[in-house]
Amino acid sequence: MERFHTTWHFPHYFKKHLPRQLEELYLTSAITDFSSAALAIFEPIYLWTLGYRIREIMVYYLILYVVDFFVLPLGGKFVARFGHERSILISTIWMVGYYVALINIPHAASLFYVAPLLFAMQKAFYWPAYHFDFIRFSVKEERATEYSGITALSTIMYTLGPIFGGMIIKLFGFDALFMVGIVSILLSSIPLFATKSPIKREVFSYWKSLVLPFRRRYQRTTLAYLSLGNELILMTVWPIFILLAFGDLFDVGLLIGLSALVTALVTLGIGKWSDRVPKGKVLRFGGIGNLAVWLLRIVSRIPPMVLVMEWIGRIFYNSTVVSMTSMTYDRAHEDDYSWHGVLYEQGFAIAKSLMALAVFLCASHIDPFVIAFALAALVSPLALVL
């Protein structure tokens, strides 16, 4: 692919003297996040409208994250050999296949089991490359600020995306939304080719990476990453709960979009705070706050309370993710950063696999929303052990 050149820069509000490679990552992330935001919260709702219930949806995500765990080291190996740009480019091909599979589930039920396999491959090629790029080009002293900048930008996209997605579904249906997603995801990798980044080939062992989360050195880290299992509930069960509370798909997109807008500036502040105080303090704020919010969501049965829980919950969630990711990047920069991006994503995969399995096993006897929110609350404090 030919490279193009541009003199455009991100506003300095995000961070002064931002490295060109990070600017490109910011822009790629913004396009990807807009596409994901327009679709991600509606994917479980889409499955719900096709007649799949919470337990069946958990099977879908269990397949996704179990496969994701085993293919992530392949993505890391590819990045180490061919570079992050090519890896992200290939991830877009898998994502297009995933959207095509989703569109056709009503016509071929077997695609319900194929779609998560394609999504797992996309994640394996995208996320190790994303972390590799950020760790390599970010500045340690301002890493939380830089990551909060990309998180805030992501949050802005998650403001516009759900509103746009809800509107498209309301006017044209789910198929039209997936087609828009295909076009935007194809455009997302273009900014990364604006600047030529030399490929630093590294030795990367699949088997070493596969067992890395369970080695004594990283067991505490893996335990902390189990707290990220609450993200599965936030991105799957919670949107369905909001739909049942408000009754309209556009209202769901509007609510989540406006919530993201409220938390965008807060997230930038969290990043600056995290660079000035011990990151563990910010992590405790987020972990304990997440515990409280998920317990309150169990008794949130009226729309105004659901709205408050959505807004407050995003703030605590972003606090946890910004501080945890920044700490991970700090450690990676002092070690071999090609491994840590994969390790972080493996933590996500383990956490979400176990969460999906737990909800599946328990939801046959208990209200699936109650058990999902209770389990999300249970794992939230684990972030504090990082």
Structural summary, described in words:
With 386 residues, the chain is mostly helical. It has one domain: Growth Hormone, Chain: A (Up-down Bundle), CATH 1.20.1250. It has helices at residues 20-40, 42-49, 54-82, 84-104, 111-137, 143-172, 174-187, 206-211, 219-225, 230-235, 237-246, 249-276, 279-298, 303-334, 337-362, 368-379. The longest helix is centred in the last third of the chain and has 32 residues, at 303-334. It is globular and about 50 Å long.
Give a nutshell description of this structure.
The chain has helices at 20-40, 42-49, 54-82, 84-104, 111-137, 143-172, 174-187, 206-211, 219-225, 230-235, 237-246, 249-276, 279-298, 303-334, 337-362, 368-379. The protein is an all-alpha fold and 386 residues long. It has one domain (20-195, 213-385): MFS general substrate transporter like domains (Growth Hormone, Chain: A), CATH 1.20.1250.
CATH superfamily: MFS general substrate transporter like domains
Largest sheet: none
Based on the coordinates given, report the CATH architecture: Up-down Bundle
- Domain count, please report it: 1
Q: Note the overall shape.
A: globular
- As a percent range, the share of helical residues equals over 70%
Number of strands: 0
Tally of alpha and pi helices: 16
- Sketch the topology as an H/E string, one letter per element: HHHHHHHHHHHHHHHH
Q: Any idea what the radius of gyration is?
A: 19 Å
Q: What is the CA-CA span between the terminal residues?
A: 40 Å
